[in-house]
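## retry 2 of 3
previous attempt timed out at serialization; input unchanged, resubmitting
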Amino acid sequence: MAAVASTRSPNVNAQAETMRTFDGVICFGGVDWWYHNRGHYDLQMMREFSARTPVLYVNSIGMRVPKPGKGGMFAKRVIRKLKSFSHGLTRVRDTFWVLSPVVAPAGMGAGVNEKALAWQVRRAARKAGISRPLVWVACPPGQPVVDALDPVGVVYQRTDRFEEYRGVDPQRISRFDRLLKDRADVTLFCSSWLMDQERDQPRGVAFVDHGVDFDVFEAAGLGDTPTPEDTADLPRPVVGFVGGIDAHTFDPALFVEVAEAVPEATFMLVGGCSLPEDWCTLPNVRLLGQRPYDQVPGYMAAADVLIMPWNRSEWIRACNPVKLKEYLAVGRPIVSTTFPELDRYGGLVRMGETADEFARHVREALAESFDPAPGRERVREQTWKAKADAVLGALRERGISCTGST
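## retry succeeded, writing output
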């Protein structure tokens, strides 16, 4: 099932008599529209909701205070955030608005920050035509201003263990998490393992995992879309990873060992990288940089094997990566380190815990014939539209509906 309702849900007949309707969604996003990949859960859900009602997406207000460090990453982050601020409120589609609120870094001047944020969001919501909002929180620091927006309903997107994110104040984020679980009408989980760990904490629980733009990724895998020019001349075979390359999720040491152990393959990495510039100098590794979301299917399809070399952090333990379903839809063999959510995909993913095991699975996947049909069938109906419908269903069970919806 796409949604699992809490046993504490109110009586459905009583809800029908007291149904509350929202005329738009205000989403406190976990990423920034202007510089992050647009395949993230919150952005995909807001894309779907905007087909039904106005959406105001509030760019991430930050969970950690940026700190100067080695290399240019600190300066890069500051510059890109300043560029985001410059956009202010922008209408990116007919019913989709993006706000880059001007706020101080996380935890600084909290009282003033909250008042300023609430004022900016209320003003932007009026511009977007939203007067009775559903407030969706994917970034826990949005919690203090939720009630200032007079929401019809509240959704808390608990898709990760935010308190485990590198560089945050875990006590501060955990406090926001507790308050949001107590306040939200629906707390969404996309990891069944994490939901089982925390099922008794929120007032209302729903399991709605990631979706996939299935037709687009399948078409790329079938060769129906152009091959990215910078992959056409890569020496075959190609082992690909598409996603963020950082020590918070990616395991650079394991990856380097695997790439060294399979010198006959070209390892193609596509995504933003926050690791030191000299982290990998192997001749069979190509770092192609971050690409727009609409180009991602083509890069995945350019690989003969797709990999997920995750680290062993608590963040990864509670994760359910978007790219898993994208990989399956493209239809290439998949090799990954282990994490609990893979238990739901038995037989579809090769798992290696050590670099030796991982490299062995890569070599076997390159050598053996592969049938993409079972993986594609597993995710064919798991579209983002289906996931948005599941969320709307969970809200209706709690007496909340979208204006004009049935």
